[in-house]
Amino acid sequence: MTGTGISCMICKTDPSAGANRNRMTDETMNHGGDADSMSDLLSQQEYSFEQPKRGDTRVGTVVWMGPNEIVVDIGVKREGIINSRDLERLSPEELAEISVGSEIPVYIVKPEDQDGNLVVSIYLAQIEMAWEEAKQYLDDRKIYETKVSGFNKGGLVAPFGNLRGFVPASQVVGLPRRLSEEDRIERLSEQVERDIVVQVIEVDRRRKRLVMSEVAAQRQWREQRRRELIDTLAEGQVVHGAVRSLANFGAFVDLGGVDGLVHISELSWQPVRHPSQVVRVGEEVDVYVLNLDREQGKIGLSIRRLLPDPWTVIDDEYAVGQRVSGVITNIVDFGAFVRLENGVEGLVHVSELSEADVGHPSEIVRRGQRCLLEIIKIDPDRRRIGLSLRRVPPHEQEPEFYQGVEEPEPEVVEAEMATEQVEEPEPAVVEAEMATEQVEEPEPAVVEAETATPAPEVPEIAGPELPLSTSE
Length: 472
Description:
CATH superfamily of the largest domain: Nucleic acid-binding proteins
Strand order of the largest sheet: 1-2-3-5-4
Number of domains: 4
Number of strands: 21
Structural class: alpha+beta
Mean pLDDT: 77
Distance between the termini: 17 Å
CATH architecture of the largest domain: Beta Barrel
C-alpha cells in the first residue's frame, strides 16, 4: 500500500483531517505565502516530534486494520505500516488482541522505504522487549517457568518469551555428567515438552546468546522455599517428610522443597552406627522440629523424640533381682556396657563380672557377646541401671556367652550425600549421655548412663537477525 492510499484511509477515519488541512492553508495565505511562516507553523504542530530512527522502539496507536497490514500512529507526520510478513509471525491469540485504538509497541525497521512509507514491526518490538526482560531477570536473579521445546547434543532449548534460550547439559537437573554422547542425546530427547524452571545466567544481545540454568533455578527455589518454610515452622512442631539422602552423621529429610537434618544421635534411643540402620532413602517419616536457625536457614530434626523414651517405662519392664539378656556394646577399664532388649544400656562394674579377681574386663567378656545378667540397681531419674554377671550361675548362662562370638559390624552403606558438600554439623540439642574411654570410674554397683558408640559451550540461538530491508 502506498503512502497516498494510507492518507486517504486516515482521512476517512478522521473527518477533521480535511478541515485542519484547509485551516492551515488559509493561515498560510494570510501570511502572504511566507515559506518561513509555514515552517514555523509546522514546527509548532505535529512535526515537532523527534524523527524516528532505525532500531527505535515506539508505542503506536492502531488507526486502521486490513487483511494484510496494520497502520499505526506513532506521533509523527507519517503513519507506520506493519506488513503481512510481520503479522504472520504473530500467534492467532496475539492478533486477536489487536483492534483499532489499541496501543502496541513497534520497532522502527525503516524510517522511510522506497515508497516513502515508515515501516515498523510488532514482532521485532517483542524481541527487543524480551531481551530487556531477560536482562532484568539476570540482574534480579529471578526464576522463569517455561517448557522445553527442543534439544541438541549440548543441551536443551527452551523459549523465553519470543527468544530461544539454551540450557547446557551441565545445567540440567538429574542428568549424569559421565554419559556417552549417544546416551546423553537420548536422555536430552526425553526432556522435550517437559515443564522446566530456569534462571538466566548469561545475556549477550550482540552475540544473541541467552543461557539459562535449571540447576541454579532449583538452588534458588529451594533457598526461597527454605526461608518461607522456616517462617512457618516452630520448635516442638511435628511435620511430615521423606528421607532424601543419608550421610555418616545423619539423615536429610525433605520437608517439601527444603531439607532438615536428623543427626545420628536423634534417630533412635538406641545407639546407631549408621543412619541406614534406622531409615532408608525415600521412606516417609514424621519428624520433630528440634531447633531452627533462621539466619543460617538450618533446621534440626529428631525422630527419637517421637518414640517412647524407654527410661520412662523402665520400672514397668524391669525390677531389681530380675534376670535379663543383653549384648556387650563397649568395654572400659571399670566395666562393660550392655544393651538390653528395650534399647537402654546398663553397666556391669568390673567387680560384678566374676567372683575371681579381674585385672581388666576384657579378660571376662568381649564386645558383641550375648549374656544373661541380673539387675542389681535401677535409677530412672539418673537414667542408670546396674547389672551383674557374677550373680548368674554358669549353668544358667546364655549359650552364646561361651562362644564368645562378636556381632558382625553392620554393613556401612555408602553415604548418599546431598548435592552439595556438607560438613558435619553440631548435634542439634543432643543429650549426649556418653560414657567413653575418658569417664571417671563410678563406685561399684553405681551404674553409668546409656552410652553412645564412638562417633564414626553454547549455540547462538537466542533470536533472529533484524531485517535489513522491508522484504526481509
